[in-house]
Amino acid sequence: MKSAQRKNESPVLGEQETYSEDEIAQISSRVLRMCLSRGISRAQADDVVQDVWLWLARSGWPRLALSPGWIVAVAWNFVLRDRRRTYSLRRREEPGLHAVEEPSFLPDHTGFENEDILNWIERSLPDIEKKLLALIRRGNTFACAAAALHIPRGSRSYHLHRIIDLARRKVGGPPPTRSSSGGTTGRHSRQPNGIRH
Fold first, then answer.
1. Which pTM value belongs to this model?
2. Is 143 helix (H, G, I), strand (E, B) or coil?
3. Do 182 and 195 form a contact (C-beta atoms < 8 A)?
4. What single-letter DSSP state applies at residue 14?
5. How far apart are CA 133 and CA 128, in angstroms?
6. pLDDT score at 190
7. Are 55 and 97 in contact (CB under 8 A)?
């Protein structure tokens, strides 16, 4: 008897059958309420409702759409799909860094000019760091300059920090203090007794 009932209850409505007007109103209101409760605008929520109805029509009017949890999950999948699509479009269409103008600034004319200071620092650097700084000053990124000089990836950070330390010493800025582990000590560095300062 049960198997006969199961055969009659197909997972989709018959070709001539469709949802009743009350069921249509319930499904639409559930999808709309879910969208609005998740902070989606009314216009986008209406689009999601239309997308869900198109999908239900293509799927053969499944009976599961009458289940509140199922239809809300289907609608949420449409919302996530739309968010991924709009995010991808926005990422593709936004201007690249080369299109954004750099902020202008007034040059500081006190003491040395920037070029003079960089020339003075560059002359005092060891050979590899001198070449790195020269390539960077010509417009290369640090990664491109290091690759052009065949510096292995594991050594790039060392050379960058060495340029910065030597430039600070040359200009007279305070050199960073080194902890016993090799890292620079900062505001929350651990002291040997385990107390933070």
1. 0.40
2. helix
3. no
4. -
5. 9
6. 44
7. no
